Structures are given as structure tokens and as C-alpha cells.
Fold Probable nicotinate-nucleotide adenylyltransferase.
Amino acid sequence: MARRIGIMGGTFDPIHHGHLVAASEVQARFALDEVVFVPTGQPWQKSDREVSPAEDRYLMTVVATASNPRFSVSRVDIERSGATYTVDTLRDLHAVEPDAELFFITGADALSQILSWRDAEELFTLAHFVGVTRPGYDLADTHLPTGSVSLIEVPAMAISSTACRERVAKGEPVWYLVPDGVVQYISKRGLYTG
Ligand code: ATP
Ligand code: MG
């Protein structure tokens, strides 16, 4: 039977428990063999702020996912030069394992931008899209082609990377918002201190 692979794309600056719960929930609900976390290269939607070096974001993602045998991390986006487009991510991962069935996991906020993504029609031929609930965003607000996207409710985690960065900058704790190893990595590398 074809392997079923989830793809969790993100800036992961830093990765937090909202990402991990979403990935775990979709893994279980869709009986995925694996969920691949794919940290972005220089993200085109975030060119307004400095994004941490790809290597730091990659390593935090590795640290956060290492203990889950079904989670892995891919470097395809950080090794491709230029901005990251989801269609390139899907093409690259499809090329690695052409027989696998791909499930692209995305939060409610990113889902509403899906139709503005590059090559939107091709996206739906490369993967199933799974939209997950995220506190503060309404899945019902997204107007998507019917049948192309599964919408599922995941345990609500009102956590964002933006809030984690702001907390670190203010000297507030991020314990229990991000995995312990990520707290330690942030402090070791002095990330987000401004
Ligand atoms: P930032 O605040 O920098 O935008 P973020 O917390 O939104 O960071 P991203 O790396 O932008 O994290 O998100 C990657 C993916 O994870 C997106 O599809 C996003 O919708 C989803 N996601 C992020 N946080 C949550 C959460 N708390 N619950 C569910 N999905 C989430
Ligand atoms: Mg985001």
C-alpha cells in the first residue's frame, strides 16, 4: 500500500507545541506513516521582518521532533535557493517518493491564503490539504474548492511563534509553550533578544 506522508510546512521561528499537536493529531486521524516537518527558506510572506537563520530553525525543529518516531525533518526548502513556494516543496517531496500519498497540513490562518499561493490548481493534484483549527482564526471563513480540503478540529493551543519571540525579547518564559530542548537552544544561541 502507498505510504501516507504528512507535510507540515512552516517558518518554525521557533517551533512550538501548537505545531506539534496539530501534526500529531493529523498523523493519528489520517493514519499517516510519517509527518515531515519542512522549515521554509526565506519566506516570501514574511519579508517584512528578519527571520532567524535557516540552520537555527532547522535545528530547533530537529530537537522538537526527535523523540517522535513518526516525525522527521526535511531540508528541501532551506536548500532550495530563493523564496519558498509550497508547490516547490510538494514537487520535491513527490520526486523523492513518487508512490507516496501526500497530505499537506496547514493551520486555519495559512489555509485562507491558499488560493493566493503560486500554482494553486497544481497544489491540489500533488497533495490532499488538511486544514486544522487554530485559536483566533475561523476555518469557516476560508472559501476553498469543495472536496479539495479536509477541515479538522485539533486541541486548541493559543500559541504562536510571534508571541514566543516577543516573550523572549521581554525576558518572559517560554517554558511549556515550546519543547524544553527548544527553550535551551533559544537561550544557548541568544535568539530573539533583539
Ligand atoms: P508566526 O507567528 O511567526 O507566523 P506561527 O506560530 O504562525 O508563527 P508558522 O511557522 O507560521 O507558525 O506556522 C506553520 C504552520 O503551523 C501554519 O500552517 C500555521 O497555520 C500552523 N500553526 C501555527 N501555530 C498553530 C497553532 N497554535 N495551532 C494550529 N496550527 C498552527
Ligand atoms: Mg504564521
Observations:
- The chain has one domain: 4-158.
- DSSP finds eight helices and six strands in the chain.
